[in-house]
Here is the input.
Amino acid sequence: MNGARTPRLPASEKSGWAMKIAGRVTIDDLPRICPLVCRQTNPRYGSHHRRVVEVGRARFGARSPVVIAGPCTVESWEQTLELAQIAKGSGADMLRGGAFKPRTSPHDFQGLGVEGLKILRAASDKVGLPVVTEVIDVRLVETVAQYADMLQIGSRSMQSYPLLVEVGRVGKPVLLKRGMAASLCEWLGAAEYIAKEGNLEIVLCERGIKTCSSGEYSRYSLDLNVIPALHLLTFLPIIVDPSHATGVASMVESASRGAVEFGCDGLIIEIASERLDAPRPVCDADQAIDPPTLRRITRFVRGHEELVPPEARMEEYAV
Ligand code: PEP
Ligand code: MN
Here is the structure.
C-alpha cells in the first residue's frame, strides 16, 4: 500500500526525537525579533511602566484611557463637522475618520482622498481635537502626514513592510492595528519595523481577529486576552477598536467596557448621526453607534479610571 510517508524526524540533541518547524516564532523569541519594543530588552520600563505616546493633549499609556471617535469614512464637510462636534461634546480626546479606505471591492467607494484629509484637518482644528487617519499607500505617507496628527496603519496593511518603514521615517505617532490573522509576535515584529526607523511613538490597536465564529454572530472575535499579554511583553500602549471587532452597534458598548476592564489604554470607536434626515453611512453603517452611547462609554471610561490605577492593574501581570 502506498500510504503517506512518515516524515523523517530530526534527532533533538537533548530529548530524543523532536520535530522542528522552519520559521516558527514564539514569545520566547521576542527579544531577538523586536528588541526595540520588547519589555525584556528595555529594562528602564521595569515590569509595568508604559511609554506615554502624546498626540496633542491625548496621552496614550498615561493614567486615563484615550477615547477616539468619529466616522468610519469622511463623506462630506457637514457630516465630518457634525461628528467631530459630537465627539468633542461627548468627551472624546481625538477624532478619527478615513480618507483613503481599504475596501474589499475596488468597485466600492474608496474615500475622498486628499479632499477628505482637508475636511478632517479643518474639522479637527474647528473642534480642537487631534485627528488620526489611515495611510494605505507608501507613496502617500508624506501627504497624509501633512494633514493628520497620527497615522493609522490598518489591519490589512500590518505586514506591508515598506509602508511601515515609511511611516517610521515620517516622524508622526503611529496607530498600528493588528492584522486580522496576525499573532502577537507578528504584530510586535511589525511595530519593530517602525521603531527601527527611529520612531517609538507607536500605539497598538486590537481590532478583532478571524476565528471559527467570525462573521457568524459578529464581524471578528475581539481578543481581550491580548491586552494583559501585551502589557507584559511590551511597553507600548494598547488600545481597542470595538467597532470593527464586533461589526454590530449593539455590542460596541459592552466590548468597550470589557476592554477597559482588561486594562486597555484607549478605544477607537465609529459613530454616526442620530438625526433622522442624516444620510446612512456609506461604509460600516451597522457598527456605528449613536451619540448617547458614545457619551455613556466616555462616562464609563472616566469613572473607571478613578477606581483602578493602571499601576495597580499591571502589578498582577508583572514578571
Ligand atoms: C478603520 O479603522 O477605518 C479600518 C478600516 O479598520 P481595520 O483596518 O481595523 O479594518
Ligand atoms: Mn469602518
